[in-house]
C-alpha cells in the first residue's frame, strides 16, 4: 500500500532542504518534526550539484548520509529529481539547454527554471540525473515516492529557444503532414503570412504591435503542453524502472500551458498542488468587501481535484511569503494555518505538506517563511501545527472519501488556451468563471470542474444534475454529441454567449451561430455585440427578476417547437429581444443565456434550476462560510452506508460535512439535527458558534 494518499490515512509533511543546514541540525530537526506530527519530508528538488557536481561525476555521499540519519527515525521521504535547477557548469558548457525570451535572448543561470524542454542535450542530462537518483535512492526503505522536477511551467510557461523551434516544426509536421495543410489551418492567406517551407516556421517571435497569427499561437500553446508532458514522461518512465512497487510518482503545482490531465494520466499516480491562500489579500483586484478572500483558493483546489479526486498539497503556506524582488503575503493569523489545512482536506487532500520547515537565510526566498523563522526557535506556528496534528487524529476516517457535487462547470484545454490568446474570449470567460464559482460558494452549492478530454464519456457527466459550459467558443462534433447525449438522458446544460463560433484551429465558422450547438440550444443568434460602455449594465428580465447579462450579448431567436423564451433583454437597442432560451431536448433541457454570467445571473440559474444549497436540510450557514461534503465512493458491489466496513475505515457511502469560517470574526451556524463533530468528538445540535477561522467536520452518514 502507498504510504500516503492510500485511502486510509491523512498525513502531514513538510519540505526540507538538508543542503541548506549544517549536518548537526538534521537529527534535531527530524525529531522536532516528528514530535509535531510531521511524518514525511520532501527533499532534493533543487540539489543537482549534490549528486552530479561536475559533468558525468556522480556522488551519493551527501544524500546517503542524510538518509542514514532519516532512517534512524520513522520519517519517510519524497525524493525529487532536481531538473528545475540545472547546474552552472551545464549551462556554461551547453547554452543550448537554456530557455529564451520571445526576442531570442537567453535566460541565463542565476534563477531557476531557465532550461527548455526540447533541448536534446538537456533531455540527456535530465534522463541521466533521474536514472542515477532513482537507481541509487529508489531502494532506500525511507523513500516512499518521487516528485518529478518542481512546478513545471512555473515562472515561465513560454519557450522560445532554437530547440523549441526545431521541435515545434516536428510537432506541426506530424499534425498537418504538408505545409499547405498548415497554411490552410492557420489562415496564412491573411496578411501574406503564407509559408513555403517548414524551415520558415518558428515558435512565435517578436512582431510589430505584438500581433501574432492566433491559429499559430493556439498550436504553439498545445505544443508547449505536449513538450512538458513529454518531459515529465521521460522522467516517469525512468523512475518506474527503479522505484519500489508501492512508491508513487507525482509532481507539484498547476501552471499554464499544460494539460495537467494528460500529464497525470500518462506519468503520475496523482497530482499535488502548492497552496498559498494568503496571496488573496495581496492580489491587484483585492477588495476589502470581497467575501471570498482566501476562500478563492478553493477554486484552485477545485481544479486540483478535477485531476485527482484525492490529491496532496506538496506546499501548504505556513508563514509570511515573498521573494526579495516581488510578492508579499502576510503571516497567517492564529488559526489560519489550520483553516487552510482543512480547506485543502475538505476538497480531497489526504496529504498536506507545509512549505517549509525552516526559513531560508540566503537567496531569493529569505521572506518565504516556513514554520520556523531564521533562528529555529519554538513559535506560535509550530504550536498550531501540533494542534492541527492533534485534530487530524479525530479525522482519519475521512481519508479516501472524495468531494461531492451535483453541479459541474465544463472546461476544455482548447477553450482555455483560446481564451488566453483571444481578448474577446478572455473577457467573457474570466467574468463567468469568477462569478459562477463565487455564486456556488456563496449559496453553498458545491461544484466540480469537469474537463472534456478525448477520454470523457457520458458516465463522467451523468452524475451532474446541472452542467454549465459557460463559453464554449471552440466546439467539436464529438463534444456536441456527448453534450446532446447528456441532455437527452435528462441532464440540464447551461450555455452562455459566444458559444460555437470557432473550430479547433480557432477559425471562425461561416455558419448561423451558435454553430454546432444550434440544434441542442434551439437558438439562432441573428445579432450580437459587446455591451456598449454607454449602456452601462444590460439586464435580462427573467419573470420579473432583473439579472445582468454581462460583457457581451448574443441577441437570440428561438428555433423549433421545443424552444421557449424565458427572459428578454431589458436595456439597450435590443430591449425586448430574447436573452434566455430553454430548449427541451429528449428528457432534459438546454439553456442558452445571451450574456456572460454576472454574480446575480449565476445565482439565479443555481436557484431556478433547483441546484442551490443541496445540504439545506442539514444546516444553515452564513455566506462567509464554505461548506464541503466528502463521501466514500460507492463501488458497484459495495453496500452503501457508513457502518459497512470493519475496523477504522468508514464504509462506502459514509460522508462528512466540512464547515469553514473564513471571516475574521465568529459566526453562528444552525444544525437542523444532531451531528457528531470529529475534531472535538462532541455531538452538536442547534445553534453552534464557529470561532474566527474555525472549522467543523460533521459525520453525516
Ligand atoms: C513554490 C515553489 C517552491 C518555492 C515557493 C516559494 O512555487 O515550488 O520551491 O519557491 O514557491 O517561492
TrEMBL record:
It catalyses: Hydrolysis of terminal non-reducing beta-D-galactose residues in beta-D-galactosides. Residues 405-611 form the Beta-galactosidase trimerisation domain. Its EC number is 3.2.1.23. Pfam families: Glyco_hydro_42 (PF02449), Glyco_hydro_42C (PF08533), Glyco_hydro_42M (PF08532). It comes from the Bacteria. GO terms for biological process: galactose metabolic process. InterPro entries: Beta_galactosidase_C, Beta_galactosidase_Trimer, Class_I_gatase-like, GH, Glyco_hydro_42, Glyco_hydro_42_N, Glyco_hydro_b. The keyword Lyase does not apply. Signal peptide: none annotated. Substrate binds at residues 112, 150, 323. Residues 15-393 form the Glycoside hydrolase family 42 N-terminal domain. CDD domains: A4_beta-galactosidase_middle_domain. GO terms for molecular function: beta-galactosidase activity; metal ion binding. One of its GO terms (cellular component) is beta-galactosidase complex. Coiled coil: none annotated. The active site is at 151 (proton donor), 315 (nucleophile). Keywords: Glycosidase, Hydrolase, Metal-binding, Zinc. SUPFAM superfamilies: (Trans)glycosidases, Class I glutamine amidotransferase-like. Residues 651-699 form the Beta-galactosidase C-terminal domain. PANTHER family: BETA-GALACTOSIDASE GANA, BETA-GALACTOSIDASE YESZ. Belongs to the glycosyl hydrolase 42 family. This is Beta-galactosidase.
Amino acid at each position: 500500500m502507498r504510504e500516503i494518499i492510500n485511502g486510509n490515512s491523512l498525513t502531514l509533511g513538510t519540505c526540507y532542504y538538508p543542503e541548506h543546514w549544517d549536518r548537526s541540525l538534521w537529527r534535531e530537526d527530524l525529531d522536532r518534526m516528528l514530535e509535531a506530527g510531521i511524518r514525511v519530508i520532501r527533499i532534493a528538488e533543487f540539489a543537482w550539484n549534490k549528486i552530479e557536481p561536475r559533468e558525468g561525476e556522480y556522488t551519493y555521499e551527501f544524500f546517503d548520509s542524510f538518509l542514514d540519519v532519516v532512517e534512524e527515525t520513522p520519517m519517510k521521504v519524497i525524493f525529487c529529481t532536481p531538473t528545475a535547477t540545472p547546474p552552472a557548469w551545464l549551462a556554461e558548457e551547453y547554452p543550448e539547454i537554456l530557455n529564451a525570451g520571445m526576442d531570442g535572448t537567453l535566460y541565463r543561470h542565476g534563477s531557476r527554471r531557465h532550461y527548455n524542454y526540447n533541448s536534446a542535450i538537456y533531455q540527456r542530462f535530465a534522463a541521466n540525473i533521474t536514472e542515477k537518483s532513482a537507481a541509487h535512492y529508489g531502494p532506500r526503505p525511507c523513500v516512499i515516492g518521487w516528485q518529478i522536477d518542481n512546478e513545471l511551467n512555473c515562472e515561465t510557461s513560454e519557450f522560445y529557444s532554437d530547440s523549441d523551434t526545431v521541435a515545434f516544426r516536428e510537432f506541426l509536421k506530424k499534425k498537418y503532414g504538408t505545409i499547405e495543410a498548415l497554411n490552410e489551418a492557420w489562415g496564412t492567406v491573411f496578411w501574406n503570412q503564407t509559408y513555403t517551407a517548414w524551415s520558415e516556421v518558428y515558435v512565435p517571435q517578436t512582431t510589430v504591435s505584438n500581433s501574432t497569427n492566433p491559429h499559430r499561437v493556439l498550436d504553439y500553446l498545445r505544443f508547449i503542453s505536449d513538450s512538458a508532458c513529454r518531459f515529465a514522461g521521460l522522467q516517469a518512465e525512468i523512475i518506474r524502472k527503479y522505484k519500489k512497487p508501492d512508491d508513487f510518482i507525482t509532481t507539484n503545482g498547476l501552471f499554464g500551458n499544460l494539460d495537467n490531465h494528460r500529464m497525470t494520466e500518462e506519468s503520475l499516480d496523482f497530482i499535488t498542488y502548492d497552496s498559498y491562500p494568503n496571496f488573496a489579500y495581496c492580489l491587484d483586484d483585492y477588495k476589502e468587501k470581497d467575501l471570498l478572500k482566501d476562500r478563492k483558493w478553493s477554486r484552485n483546489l477545485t481544479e486540483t481535484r478535477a485531476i485527482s479526486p484525492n490529491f496532496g498539497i506538496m506546499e501548504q503556506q505556513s508563514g509570511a511569503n515573498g521573494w526579495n524582488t516581488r510578492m508579499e503575503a502576510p503571516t497567517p493569523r492564529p488559526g489560519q494555518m489550520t483553516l487552510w489545512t482543512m480547506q485543502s482536506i475538505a476538497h480531497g487532500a489526504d496529504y498536506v505538506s507545509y512549505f517549509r520547515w525552516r526559513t531560508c537565510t540566503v537567496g531569493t526566498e529569505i521572506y518565504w517563511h516556513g514554520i520556523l523563522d531564521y533562528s529555529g526557535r519554538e513559535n506560535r506556528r509550530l504550536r498550531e501545527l501540533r494542534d492541527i496534528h492533534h485534530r487530524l487524529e479525530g479525522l482519519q476516517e475521512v481519508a479516501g472519501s472524495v468531494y461531492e457535487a451535483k453541479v459541474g462547470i465544463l472546461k476544455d484545454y482548447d477553450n482555455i488556451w483560446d481564451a488566453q490568446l483571444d481578448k474577446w474570449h478572455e473577457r467573457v470567460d474570466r467574468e463567468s468563471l469568477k462569478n459562477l464559482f463565487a455564486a456556488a460558494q456563496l449559496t453553498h452549492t458545491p461544484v466540480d470542474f469537469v474537463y472534456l478530454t478525448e477520454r470523457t464519456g457520458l458516465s463522467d457527466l451523468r452524475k451532474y444534475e446541472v452542467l454549465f459550459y459557460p463559453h464554449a467558443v471552440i466546439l467539436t462534433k464529438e463534444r456536441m454529441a456527448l453534450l446532446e447525449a447528456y441532455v437527452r438522458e435528462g441532464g440540464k446544460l447551461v450555455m452562455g454567449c459566444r458559444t460555437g463560433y470557432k473550430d479547433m484551429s480557432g477559425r471562425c465558422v461561416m455558419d448561423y451561430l451558435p454553430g454546432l450547438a444550434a440544434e441542442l440550444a434551439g437558438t439562432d443568434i441573428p445579432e450580437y455585440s459587446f455591451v456598449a460602455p454607454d449602456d452601462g449594465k444590460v439586464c435580462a428580465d427573467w419573470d420579473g427578476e432583473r439579472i445582468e447579462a454581462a460583457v457581451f450579448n448574443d441577441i437570440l431567436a428561438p428555433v423549433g417547437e421545443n424552444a421557449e423564451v424565458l427572459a428578454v433583454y431589458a436595456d439597450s437597442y435590443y430591449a425586448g429581444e430574447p436573452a434566455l432560451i430553454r430548449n427541451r431536448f429528449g428528457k432534459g433541457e438546454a439553456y442558452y443565456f445571451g450574456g456572460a454570467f454576472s454574480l446575480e445571473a449565476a445565482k439565479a440559474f443555481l436557484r431556478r434550476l433547483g441546484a442551490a444549497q443541496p445540504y439545506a436540510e442539514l444546516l444553515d450557514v452564513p455566506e462567509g462560510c464554505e461548506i464541503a461534503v466528502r463521501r466514500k465512493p460507492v463501488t458497484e458491489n459495495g453496500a452503501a452506508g457508513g457502518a459497512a466496513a470493519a475496523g477504522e475505515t468508514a464504509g462506502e457511502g459514509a460522508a462528512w460535512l466540512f464547515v469553514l469560517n473564513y471571516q475574521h470574526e465568529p459566526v453562528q451556524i444552525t444544525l437542523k439535527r444532531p451531528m457528531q463533530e470529529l475534531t472535538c468528538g462532541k455531538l452538536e445540535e442547534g445553534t453552534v458558534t464557529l470561532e474566527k477561522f474555525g472549522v467543523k467536520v460533521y459525520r453525516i452518514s
